[in-house]
Design goal:
The protein is mainly beta. It folds into four domains: 119 residues, no CATH class; 281 residues, no CATH class; 145 residues, Sandwich (Jelly Rolls); 45 residues, no CATH class. It contains eleven helices and 45 strands. Strands 3, 4, 27, 28, 38, 39, 40 and 41 form an eight-stranded mixed β-sheet that branches. A hairpin with a 2-residue loop joins strand 7 and strand 8. 39% of the residues are buried.
Length: 750
């Protein structure tokens, strides 16, 4: 007996719905779209009617009559959780939607429903939510030397257990060790780095967990739990040169003192200048005092950027900025014929004060033009704190404020494109997803023999895959905005790390498919005149990219290769460390053939490598999928197969279906009658054993640099396979021809 069970809107109670006896309920099961999580498709039924019995109207209400109040069980705007089963065998879990109501002979007669299998409805759940909308309160933290260095080890309390790590990227510091530079990189105590020069990186796994949980889903993934994926991180950077905090967001707004008119002073005397908030000045957290002291008190160890502007109207004078009432840190001297304007930076420790003092230098009244047109008016006299930045220690970092501008769904779909992920709804648990790379998912299936279930009275259609092939496939990240990516894109007319497949020998393949992520390439280069390799997120002018796209990168651990780095500790005292945290598109600081690369295709590195890794995203996650699709032996099958309800309940899309002498994988089951069962149309694709990309596969490297193949130290491959994987074949008339890494390219300069 076919049974439809519905839950109320709160999903607290279940109701058995009356069905018509022997009325067909046709089910469709589809796999192909689970690889596209931004398309809400999946298993579904065709529409079917249920009678408007008393029991059914108790659940739905008189939905045929718009004047009737609906029941609390049901809303036409909400999906209704449902299970369709035959006896005790569940056939499909998911949701139903009311499509139509039918009235016959003036009486409410039928309700038409459509049943959707548990589909990938993440798009609707996430809507327009961005990474910055996530609740990061559990990973917000204080920036201090202990947390900074503990994050490198990944052995501290959450979030410094490997969830948040700090690394170095150039965000506009424009570091250089070239002779005469004004921006050296922390190689001496005199050029020590601020703690805020470091950038927080957030684990991709944490982002996935919180995106999916917030959307109301759960998931399991062996892949996301691997040690390899645990090292995939997103830089928490959106254009601010220092990590941003909810505590200092408003500090960057203008705040200052209005230098009043007609300050009458004897020669050489001083007067404190009060804070006046009459023209839009802003004093966040009451750091300015309007008491008799008229002081600004530093909220934490920080750097201030200030502007002092004085317009003199009569006689001469000087305006000084004092630190702690003792030290002059900035001055503006004027006469009746000139204006003095200066912008300067200085560091403060928490509790330090600054004050503004006017001093007369000539006889007569010291007259200045007051603020008349708001802070910053050229004809106004003012002292202004432009920003409270460069916190040395103690600032709370609000992670959400530092996330790049990317939608949560775009983050997930980009991961899907990178790692060829399938998102499969669990058949028995609503809103639970199984997420794995395609090859891992299909290799974990159960073998089933359906040979004797084929209905050979109907045509069994076997055809090549040419009709579903594209002439061109392209995997690429989004364009980069930093100077190096821009130079690469201009010279090569493509994005760094792109991989392109062109099937020039196929007369029947048509069209082009581009799989593009929302991430920008994370390309390492050296700090000029140094051996320190970092991502330099700077434009052609040397400034930081202001609205950077999201990036993904590997955490490679700590290295001693870069020598000593000096950092200011919490007391603003330079301290040294020989450990340097490394983030890279490669999975190792000094990668070789066996390591991983977050690019799709093989690229020349701009830093030293032993050899570029074999395991690009394309090679590791997409190659076997593409080779199977494009192989001469690839086949699609359409057959009519007699499936029991137990077969339907038991099958998974990962299953290996044996038919006669070949294994297939199910793509789609069409119009299975849940009422009667029986013969149903099934679309399948032939499973091929691993299709070799080339006769020889690079697997190692000798100390001489020579690339070796097929797990043998004496196998040097051939020219075709060497060049196939992006290496250089050196032919010799005398001696053995061998395969070598590509030579290091020069980094474009800015």
């Amino acid at each position: 007996m076919l049974t439809l069970t519905l839950w109320n809107t709160a999903e607290t109670s279940q109701y058995i719905i009356d069905l018509y006896d022997h009325a067909p309920v046709n089910l469709n099961y589809q796999f192909s779209d689970v690889t596209e999580i931004n398309k809400a498709k999946g298993s579904y039924s065709q529409t079917f009617r249920i009678p408007a019995t008393k029991s059914n109207t108790n659940f739905f209400g008189r939905i045929d009559n718009p004047t009737q109040q609906p029941t609390s069980n049901f809303s036409v705007k909400k999906k209704i959780r449902a299970t369709l089963s035959y006896s005790t065998i569940p056939l499909m879990n998911g949701y139903v939607q009311v499509k139509n109501m039918y009235v016959q002979k003036k009486d409410f007669a039928d309700i038409e429903l459509i049943f959707f299998g548990e589909t990938l409805d993440l798009v609707r759940s996430l809507q327009e939510e961005k990474l910055a909308d996530l609740d990061t309160s559990t990973i917000d933290h204080f920036l201090n030397i202990t947390n900074l260095q503990t994050s490198w080890l990944g052995s501290g309390a959450f979030p410094f257990d490997g969830t948040v790590r700090y690394g170095i990227m150039d965000k506009g510091q424009n570091w250089s060790e070239a002779d005469g530079t004004i921006t050296p990189f922390g190689t001496t105590s005199a050029t020590a780095l601020n703690q805020s020069d470091y950038t927080p990186y957030i684990s991709a796994k944490w982002l996935i967990d919180n995106i999916i949980t917030t959307a109301g889903f759960t998931y399991t993934s062996d892949f996301f739990d691997t040690a390899d994926f645990a090292n995939v991180f997103l830089p928490a950077y959106n254009g601010s040169i220092v990590p941003r905090s909810i505590d200092n967001e408003s500090e960057a707004q203008v705040c200052g003192v209005n230098i009043a008119a007609n300050v009458a002073l004897p020669v050489g005397s001083y007067v404190l200048v009060p804070f006046v908030d009459s023209f839009g000045g802003y004093d966040y957290s009451n750091n300015w005092s309007n008491a008799s002291t008229y002081k600004f008190t530093a909220p934490y160890n920080c750097m201030l950027t200030c502007t002092l502007n004085v317009v003199q109207t009569q006689f001469g004078g000087i305006v000084h900025v004092f630190l702690n009432n003792t030290t002059i840190i900035g001055s503006a001297q004027t006469s009746s014929t000139n204006t003095s304007n200066t912008t300067f930076n200085f560091t403060l420790e928490a509790g330090d004060t600054i004050s503004v003092i006017a001093q007369s230098t000539t006889a007569g009244n010291f007259l200045v033009a007051p603020t008349s047109s708001g802070w910053g008016g050229g004809n106004s006299s003012f002292f202004r704190v432009d920003s409270v930045t460069e916190p040395f220690s103690g600032q709370e970092v609000t992670m959400s404020l530092n996330f790049p501008d990317i939608k949560q769904i775009d983050f997930l779909t980009s991961l899907q494109k990178m790692f060829n992920l399938v998102f499969v709804p669990d058949k028995n648990t609503p809103k639970h997803l199984i997420i794995e790379p395609y090859q891992d998912y299909i290799s974990a299936g159960t073998q089933k023999d359906w040979t004797n279930k084929i209905d050979f009275t109907k045509d069994v259609v076997i055809r090549p895959t040419t009709d579903i092939q594209k002439n061109v496939y392209e995997w690429t990240n989004d364009v980069g905005q930093d100077f190096l990516n821009v130079a690469i894109q201009a010279s090569n007319a493509r994005t760094y790390g792109r991989y392109k497949v062109e099937d020039k020998d196929n007369d029947f393949a048509t069209g082009e498919l581009v799989l593009k992520t929302a991430f920008s390439p994370y390309v390492l280069s050296y700090i000029p005149s140094s051996e320190v390799a970092i991502y330099r997120c700077i434009d052609n002018g040397g400034g930081g990219v202001q609205k950077p796209k999201a990036h993904l990168t590997y955490w490679c651990g700590l290295t001693l290769l870069y020598g000593t780095t000096w950092i200011y500790n919490d007391s603003v005292v330079p301290v040294s460390t020989t450990f340097f945290p490394v983030f890279s598109n490669y999975s190792a600081t000094f990668p070789s053939v066996a390591d991983n690369d977050l690019n799709f295709g093989y690229e020349i590195a701009f830093v030293d490598v032993q050899a570029h890794p074999l395991n690009t995203l394309y090679y590791k996650y997409w190659m076997s999928y593409v080779n199977e699709l494009y192989s001469e032996s690839s086949r699609l099958m359409t057959a009519y197969i007699k499936l029991t309800r137990a077969d339907i309940q038991d099958f998974e899309f990962s299953d290996r279906i044996f038919i006669k002498d070949t294994y297939y994988r199910i793509l789609k089951i069409s119009n299975y009658d849940a009422t009667t069962g029986g013969v149903v149309q099934v679309d399948l694709i032939k499973i091929l054993s691993d299709v070799a990309d080339c006769a020889y596969t690079p697997t190692g490297q000798l100390t001489s640099g020579v690339i070796t193949f097929n797990s043998s130290a004496s196998n040097y491959g051939n020219q075709a396979c060497c060049e196939r994987y992006g290496y250089v074949w050196v032919s010799r008339k005398v001696g053995t021809s061998q395969c070598y890494p590509t030579s290091l390219a020069n980094t474009p300069t800015i």
